[in-house]
Amino acid sequence: MAMIELQNVTKDYGDSRGIFNINLSIELGEAFGFVGTNGAGKTTTIRHLMGFLKPNTGTVQIKNLDAWQNAAEIKQCVGYTPGEIAFPDVKTGWEFIHQQAELLQLTDLSFANQLIERLQLDPSANIKRMSKGMKQKTAIVVALMADPPILILDEPTTGLDPLMRAEFIQIIKEEKGKGKTIFMSSHMFEEIEETCDKVAMIKEGKIITIEAISSIMSNEHQQFIIEFSNEQESTRFMQEKLDSVAISHTMVSVNIENNILNEFLAILSTYQFDNLTEQNHTLQEQFYHLYSGGQSHD
Ligand SMILES: Nc1ncnc2c1ncn2[C@@H]1O[C@H](COP(=O)(O)OP(=O)(O)OP(=O)(O)O)[C@@H](O)[C@H]1O
């Protein structure tokens, strides 16, 4: 069952800015990562999920409810951290936490207290004087404290130091273990690798790939960087029917399925090259490959 579903969603801000024909489906209990460069369209997509934006075309649904029309109802079952945290007019972290608890009709703050302790947050601090990391921690506590079945997190670890980021990852793993459906954008590839089942990459407002993390990390394909002896050789190699991307005038990144490895090596032996290195299978490597290659997933 899809808990979060976007079908053909477009929000066109003009000048090729916005999001275009977005299709995403996040199943019950799935942790789904969302990555892309600055301005790629992550926050715009997430704001549609929260019913803050109405799409020009297409449908956005959470638990089969229209995200725009049923925004109030949806908020009761979604924990959300915004990309840009702006607190209402409250003095302290505690005041904000209590105010949000009241809105959620939450009387038991024991989980909030556990999170506060684990994230080493001092909620008595003046909210206006809080550092970016402290504000982020406060937003995380509020998003998670009512134990909602769906978490929508827009770059939740921005501003957290490495220790706190590790603690956050642990918390998210535990939330996933409870069966939560999680949609999380991030610039941190490792945290998506560690927590998510699937990842979608967005580039210039369009989804360029959706893949299982396990398949990205698997050894079904290999990624090589070849440094050719000169530009002519690299240009000639780019004509081969292989999944290649030029990194520089003489360097090429190539994705090779294991079953054509021998064929690839035979082809390569007809070229002059100075260096051949195998890359690790990581989300970061996949991201660079697709971003420079510009594959589309319409
Ligand atoms: N209200 C708006 N009016 C006009 N353009 C907008 C508006 N909101 C966003 N955009 C543009 O839409 C594009 C996508 O922006 P968005 O904030 O969704 O990107 P992002 O992937 O979240 O980026 P970042 O990683 O920097 O947070 C950008 O080109 C942005 O300038």
TrEMBL record:
Superkingdom classification of source: Bacteria
Domain ABC transporter: 4-229
Key words of the record: ATP-binding, Nucleotide-binding, Transport
Gene Ontology MF annotations: ATP binding; ATP hydrolysis activity
PANTHER family xref list: ABC TRANSPORTER ATP-BINDING PROTEIN, ABC TRANSPORTER ATP-BINDING PROTEIN NATA
Similarity remark: Belongs to the ABC transporter superfamily.
Protein name as it appears in the record: ABC transporter ATP-binding protein
Species whose genome carries this gene: Lysinibacillus macroides
